[in-house]
Specification:
Chain B: It is an enzyme of class 6 (ligase). The complex is a heterodimer of chains A (about 350) and B (about 800). Chain A is α+β, with helices and mostly antiparallel strands and about 350 residues long. Helix content of chain A is about 40%, strand content about 20%. In chain B, strand 4 and strand 5 form a beta hairpin. The longest helix of chain B has 17 residues. Classes of the chains: A alpha+beta (about 350), B alpha+beta (about 800). The structure holds zinc ion (ZN).
């Protein structure tokens, strides 16, 4: 019987080693250790042995059984791991295939520029003011020191709807309205919006375009404050090493009036095609609010002074992004629009 | 304004500054120099030639063989100009010469004949064709007989010159003359200004003996001066005068006209010359035109006059439109022997209106419109008399015929140095201010700590202390202004709730995959009302530039759809755009009712065609989902009501409702509209964004996260196809009681396994009690009520 047991053990261990899958190994388990297996049979057959041999045989059977079990479990760990590895291997994907696209749109480039400017001035304590695009001649011109027949009205041929109503030619009427509404109190606003002029559309002209203007009114506002504010704007918008320069100019609603150039952000001032070899790029017009404008809105121009500035987001976008034709902003070609997706920070 | 530097030097020392440097100084101190134009264009080797003989080329009809004395030799040149003739002094480009446009002259053979150079037209010297005197416009230019053979043309005729092109702002009318520019340059460079010295001999007869003057409109014409010059010989002007006019962009005509134009450029004072004999009456009367009166102007146009327009008449009929253009009947010609020179002050508004009425803008009218210097009217007339006597051999009659009620006094502006510095944020010394005012030639006195400034009448733009501040600052240098920030209390700043919510809408739509578009507000009659949410009249521009852009839009969709078609026509089949912008409706006010709208248009695939094989064309529900999410984000309850709108699919259109009000529309384009616009299935939406954003949303308070589980029950119903899921949902919600928390459609089947006219809709119902765990019994009770209600409305339960 002992020999029989040894024989069984050898057989079982051989089969364990030979088993190459979890299933085969499980079959071995059932075949040798199962309720109908030979080892169980042997245990059942012990009844026939003399009583004094039984404990010894019993112990022997258990030893064999344990050894087979241990071997089997050891083998099982290896085979299971192999099985998992094989499964994972079969699940391999082609990671070079493209990912599922996340569909995202983006703002119009002009919105992008306008909001950047809005946020910059908001951080300096400005509020955003808006007003109607169809405007009264009074707010568009007269309240801004441009009475009927003023020669500067030629500068901006307008779309009139009636004698007294027109499509605003600049966002300045929002300033006039805000001043009127504030009733003599200090103001710090920027006014973005669409404006309209009688221009034929071409690469550099558009009958509809956008403007963003700023207005600050308070006690002792000086021209140096205008220069400092514009300098902060230029650096934030176009880079820390930008310098600004003011040139005298003329606007009916400011006195003195200036135009602001920034040092070219492409060449740094040495001259290139962006700055037309001058090293400077004209960015905006500005000035100290004309006393007539203040007085007309009910401000005491002896007590309160102010500055105003205005710029064209189209021009800024064209300079910043290298856009060569203003009509791109109004054609809405998705191949153009979708380029303004990524951040520049 | 074109300013020849050589000419400018007659009046002011330019300190031999290189032209670009002078231009930069002018720009930095206030008048923008748009261009610096070298009139020599780098030309070399161009000399005066004398045509000794000129014969037809035997081989070519249009060519002449000329023997030309060029000083050091006589050489053969072939010339193709029709006006070439022996005995002429001409402009010769010698072999080796350089002409504008990178042209180099070489010896050449033309049809077998040698040509040693080229006889030039003025155009070939870089002068614009429209400036070349008419006689030479089609051929070579013929120089005066006294031009020295062999001498350098560039030096002799002042082409070694640079012209500064000034971009003048409307306030700087003073710089519309050479003398005005000289004052500006004098102020910049601290130089004196030399005015022309006027002297001429007068005849013993007086002007008044030949001419009488009446001014019947003294407000519009407060000053009129006329001089009479007789025995003049009308002919070509001398070269220097022609050259100066051409440098200023004026075409030479004859000495009389050229003198008036020269003085216009020199003084900024328009002059007009009448042929005295053609005036017929020896009288000039200035009056307003009679309604309907006619005049033929110098440009040969017959013009009808109106009562508000000022005219110069001979006492009977108009001979000129005052300040705008002369009449053809009294035009100076070669036959003229006596001229009347007019120098006048016409009120700017009157000239502006008249020139606008006739669509006529001339060098004269543009100066009158901006206001001429009252103190230059009379000197300009004297200067004309001088030049006509010098250049046309004229005899100037003594005195002038004058009407003068014009105020020529200087404006006094008082300003204190402290005020100037406080407004600028600077510390300019009194001495520096004093110096600048002197450089400007403003007579200034100091009194009681104030600067008392007499502003010369040429500077009509200086009216108030702030104008003086600008003068001082610009000449002191804007670079010297320090950079500071306002010292006032800082304010918080920020967006209004409306503006903040608009940004939220934008980022939601962009997150959903839409690109922001911007289209034009002006549209055509046809597109103005398409997809409009409200029925109102359209608003038309008084003077549109085109029919396409003549009406204010009432909806955003037409242009947005044009943008979609623009893209699909370029093979971008899937397009998803949105726009926010104003639409313009007739309002109660005289201003329009301007509403901010939001529009969306989507076509093509919503889910892109990926390698996973999934693709989903856009449909109504894609867009409806976006609108619903928008409502959720803004905290408003948007509902949808079946509706109809022209050009939308009749079965696939709904109105977007807010509190029972129609605020927008959503739908698929009508197939015929899709075809019209060359689009495949396209869904659109437009709503009144202003209404949506103006709703104040309630404060956000969290609802406790459920502590007890919810239970769900599904029901599948067979319904008649015409019954809408929304109706059934309402039935369920009404019957479900307070335990029913949510109802969702999770399946819809309309396939062939269904009976004709039927569909199957499956709902998932969620029951929940926030206070405790629901028992089966409670759920069964509630659910039974729902099922009963469903049966009652004819819904058939599907097992
Ligand atoms: Zn550059």
């Amino acid at each position: 019987m002992e020999a029989q047991l040894q024989e069984l053990k050898t057989q079982a261990l051989d089969k364990i080693t030979a088993a190459s899958t979890v299933k085969e190994l499980n079959d071995v388990r059932v075949a040798y250790l199962g309720k109908k297996g030979p080892i169980t049979d042997l245990l059942k057959g012990m009844g026939k042995l003399p009583a004094e041999e039984r404990p010894k045989m019993g112990a022997l059977v258990n030893v064999v059984r344990e050894e087979v079990t241990t071997q089997l479990e050891g083998r099982m760990v290896i085979l299971e791991e192999e099985a998992i590895n094989q499964k994972l291997q079969s699940e391999t994907i082609d990671i070079t295939l493209p990912g599922r696209p996340v569909k995202t749109g983006n703002p119009h480039p002009l919105t992008r520029v306008v909001e950047e400017i809005e946020d910059l001035f908001i951080s300096m304590g400005y509020e955003v003011a808006e007003g109607p695009e169809v405007e009264k001649d009074y707010y568009n011109f007269e309240a801004l020191n441009l009475p009927k027949g003023h020669p500067a009205r030629d500068m901006q041929d307008s779309f009139y709807i009636t004698e007294d109503i027109l499509l605003r030619t600049h966002t300045s009427p929002v300033q006039a309205r805000t001043m009127e509404a504030k009733g003599g109190e200090p103001i710090k606003i920027i006014c973005p919006g669409k404006v309209y002029r009688r221009d034929s559309d071409d690469a550099t002209h558009s009958h509809q375009f956008t403007q963003i203007e700023g207005l600050v009114i308070g006690e002792d506002i000086r021209m140096s404050d205008l220069k400092g504010t514009l300098s902060v704007f230029a650096k934030k918008m176009f880079g820390d090493d930008r310098e600004i320069r003011l040139r005298p100019s003329f606007f009916p609603f400011t006195e003195p009036s200036v135009e602001m150039d920034i040092s070219c952000f492409k060449c740094g001032g040495s001259g290139c095609n962006v700055c037309k070899k001058t090293g400077w790029i004209e960015i905006l017009g500005a000035g100290m609010v004309h006393p007539n404008v203040l007085e007309m809105a009910g401000y005491d121009s002896k007590r309160l002074t102010g500055f105003a500035f205005g710029m064209g987001p189209e021009r800024i976008a064209m300079l910043k992004y290298g856009v060569e034709d203003i009509r791109h902003f109004y054609t809405n070609d998705v191949r153009f629009l979708s380029q303004f997706q990524r951040t520049e920070l | 304004m074109l300013v020849s530097i050589n000419w400018l030097k007659d009046y002011v020392n330019t300190q031999q500054l290189p032209p670009a440097e002078l231009g930069e100084k002018i720009t930095r101190s206030g008048i923008e120099v748009d261009a610096v134009i070298d009139r020599s264009h780098g030309m070399t080797n161009i000399v005066v030639g004398y045509v000794e003989s000129c014969v037809k080329h035997p081989e070519a009809d249009k060519l002449s063989i000329c023997q030309v004395n060029v000083g050091e030799e006589t050489t053969q040149i072939i010339c193709g100009a029709p006006n070439i003739a022996a005995g002429q002094k001409v402009i010769v480009a010698r072999p080796g010469a350089k002409l504008p446009g990178d042209i180099k002259i070489k010896k050449a053979k033309l049809r077998g004949e040698e040509s040693h150079g080229m006889i030039c037209s003025l155009q070939e010297l870089g002068i614009e064709g429209k400036l070349v005197p008419k006689a030479y416009a089609e051929g070579i230019y013929v120089l005066p007989e006294d031009a020295e053979t062999g001498s350098d043309v560039l030096t002799n005729f002042d082409l070694n010159d640079t012209v500064l092109e000034l971009g003048l702002t409307p306030n700087r009318a003073d710089a519309m003359s050479m003398i005005g520019v000289a004052y500006e340059v004098g102020a910049i460079l601290s130089e004196e200004v030399k005015l022309p010295e006027i002297s001429y001999k007068e005849a013993s007869d007086t002007a008044a003996s030949m001419l009488t003057l009446n001014v019947d409109a003294p407000e519009a014409n407060p000053l009129y001066v006329a001089k009479v010059v007789r025995n003049i010989k009308v002919q070509e002007s001398p070269m220097w005068l022609q050259q100066r006019l051409m440098s200023a962009g004026v075409r030479p005509h004859n000495n009389v006209v050229d003198v008036t134009n020269y003085i216009l450029m020199e003084y900024g004072q328009p002059l007009h010359a009448f042929d005295y004999d053609l005036l017929e009456t020896g009288n000039i009367t200035v009056r307003h035109a009679k309604e309907g009166e006619m005049i033929t102007t110098l440009d040969d146009a017959e013009r009808k006059l109106s009562g508000h327009q000022l005219v110069i008449t001979n006492g009977e009929k108009p001979v000129a439109i005052a300040g705008v253009m002369g009449g053809a009947d009294s035009e100076v010609s070669e036959a003229t022997t006596t001229v009347v020179i007019e120098s006048a002050y016409f009120e700017s508004g009157s000239v502006r209106q008249t020139s606008k009425d006739h669509g006529l803008r001339s060098d004269a009218s543009s100066r009158y419109e901006k206001g001429v210097d009252p103190n230059r009217v009379i000197p300009a007339a004297e200067r004309a008399a001088q030049l006509l006597s010098e250049l046309a051999g004229g005899e100037v009659l003594a005195g002038s015929v004058v009407f003068d009620e014009l105020n020529k006094e200087e404006k006094i502006v008082k300003v204190s140095p402290d005020f100037i510095n406080s407004r600028l944020g600077m510390k300019i010394s009194f001495e520096d201010m004093w110096d600048i005012l002197n450089r400007l030639k403003f007579n200034t006195e100091a009194a009681n700590g104030q600067l008392v400034i007499s502003v010369p009448t040429r500077r009509q733009d200086i009216q108030i202390p702030e104008d003086v501040i600008e003068e001082i600052a610009r000449l002191y240098g804007y670079d010297e202004i320090p950079a500071t920030l306002p010292e006032a209390e800082t304010t918080p700043g920020g967006l209004t709730p409306y503006q903040a919510k608009r940004r939220i809408v934008r980022s939601l739509l962009e997150g959903a995959g839409l690109l922001q578009a911007t289209t034009y507000s002006l549209t055509s009659e046809k597109s103005a009302k398409q997809f409009a949410l409200e029925e109102t009249e359209t608003t038309r521009l008084l003077m549109p530039m085109s029919e396409e852009r003549s009406i204010l839009r009432q909806s955003l969709l037409p242009h947005l759809l044009e943008s979609v078609t623009y893209n699909t026509a370029r093979r971008m089949d899937s397009v998803a755009l949105y726009e926010t912008g104003s639409v313009f409706l007739k309002g109660d006010d005289e201003l329009l009712n301007e509403q901010e709208h939001l529009a969306v248009a989507i076509t093509g695939l919503w889910l892109d065609n990926s390698w996973q094989g999934e693709k989903k064309p856009v449909d109504f529900f894609v867009l409806k989902g976006i609108v619903e999410t928008l409502g959720t984000k803004l905290g408003v309850q948007l509902t949808f009501e079946r509706g109809q709108m022209d050009d939308l699919h009749p079965g696939r259109t709904a109105f977007i409702m807010l509190d029972g009000h129609r605020i927008g529309v959503i739908g698929q384009l009508h197939p015929s509209e899709q075809k019209e616009r060359d689009l495949k299935t396209t869904v659109v939406m437009e709503l009144n964004l202003a209404l949506l954003l103006n709703i104040e949303t309630a404060a956000l308070l969290y609802t406790p996260v459920p502590r007890y589980p919810s239970m769900s029950r599904d029901v599948a119903l067979v319904l008649s196809k015409i019954v809408e899921a929304g109706t059934i949902e309402t039935v369920i919600r009404n019957a479900g009681g307070k335990l029913l928390k949510d109802v969702r459609v999770f399946d819809l089947y309309e396939g062939d396994k269904m009976e004709e006219g039927k569909k199957s809709v499956a709902f998932s119902l969620t029951y929940f009690d926030p206070e405790k765990t629901l028992t089966d019994e409670e759920v069964i009770n509630a659910h039974e009520k729902v099922l009963a209600a469903l049966t009652e409305v004819g819904a058939e339960l599907r097992s």
